[in-house]
Amino acid sequence: MLDTITEKLNLKNGESNLIKKAYDFALSAHKDQKRAGGEPYFNHVCAVAQTVSELKLDVKAIAAAFLHDSVEDTPVTLKDIKNEFGEEIAFLVEGLTKLDKIKYNQDAWQIENLRKMFLSMAQDIRVVIIKLADRLHNMSTLKEMPPEAQTRIAKETMEIYAPIADRLGMNEIKGQLEDLCFNFLYSDQLKWLKDQIQDQVEGREIYLNKVKPVILQELEKEKIKILEIQSRVKKYWSLWQKLIRYEMNWDKIHDLVALRLIVPTISDCYGALGVIHKLWRPLVGRIKDFIALPKPNGYQSLHTTVFCLDGIVTEIQIRTPQMHESAENGIAAHWAWEAAGKPLAGFQMKDRKLYWIKQLREWHKSARDSKEFLENLKIDFFKKRVFVFTPIGDVVDLPENATPIDFAYHIHTDLGDHCVGAKINGKLLGLDAVLHNGDVVEILTQKNKKPSQDWLSFVKTNQAKSHIKKSLGFITKITNKIRPQEKIFHLEIKVKDRVGMLRDITNSFVKFKINLSTVRTDRGKQPTIIINFSLKPKQKTEELLKELKKINGVLDLKQIELS
Ligand code: MN
Questions:
Q1: Cβ distance 443 to 404 under 8 Å?
Q2: Is pLDDT at 382 greater than 60 in this prediction?
């Protein structure tokens, strides 16, 4: 087992001795322990060390991965670790042991532990990465746990760990965690989704195998070297989220299976994009240059969607090997490059690390009560971003639909507090105007001006909200007013096609005062009416379903709760 962990590392003598020592130490510490499923506990720490090694963290982190459960679960003490392995490894193990105490449920004292977790994150990023590797293995063996524990752990993973992986740009681990949770939290929905895409995925892969040689040939003509061409299948949870966003409209999903090109340099990326656009016409508004404008978590790539062979709409992603590694492993990749003394040009590790730490500290500080803290966490993680410019050309990233007030508070508290107007691309616009990618924003201020309560109705960032509330002096009143969420449902009704069928069905919704959001008719072999609708908190679907079943010609109903 040790060989598979060390085989891809270029270890010096002392380093492989250190790993061997940690391996032996953990083996003897856990020797009689078994996991819930009956396998040796030692297998777990090996799996974690394996992931940490694949992420190319240093040998101290790999050693800490081997040792991460020995203080918690065996008679070994932190002092023993310090004596055997020194300060730094003991420090990492201590951090991991602390994180182990975090048990998620939404009580206040739990949240306090969550905060500690984040602070420890700010202290050493390796602790967080090892913890994510630990959680990944625990999730992959979760079926061995009792059902109650499965739900609790999956929820905690979905709400805390996956978002952290996301924020750190560790997309591969994030995606794996989410798909594992999906199975435990919404197994019916996952089954439905898998049924829907099985044939599609197969068909797409056969199709892309025809596309690949065409691209390769054309790139060769233009003398652009290609290191790898792969088709990647979208992860289930991410696909599911996208489907919900587009109200289950499959026509909007162009990247179920996308083509990915890895080329040596940035100029090859743009070169390859040109070649592809010469071959096939791109869809308007679907060319995304995340190389010039990286996502806030550092993600870089070119994306385009083209009318490909036979006019089939296809998404193509182009990137360099460094961008690829960074996209999959995020901060872990940058940490590894930094440690190896070759940071990626143009990517300032220090600044970025500081940015993350600043962000985390900000959350910690602004958390007036535990609920708000958790809300902040959940909300900011999932929002999409928009990039705008200051008058001197600095890029500012903000959440989707952000306004000039959000922009102002992002730059400086005083700018926000004294804001009276905004020029967007030179034009005077309202403070509630929605900012778009590439807008140049200039804030006009007046010394005596104070924030207005109205602003709270349209600002998007938590930063702006908390500053405005602070200025107005009523932080607690507002937080109690969070409106209960409406629930969204998806309903498929198999019917005999007849005149008036759709009218009869929609009338039932009207009768129960239920809001329809979309209605689609699928006139395939088995005519189906597909409806998405939302329920207010006190509404239920039982009566509606009974009524629908009574309608002449309704054969079968299938309902899924989407949120
Ligand atoms: Mn563990």
A1: yes
A2: no
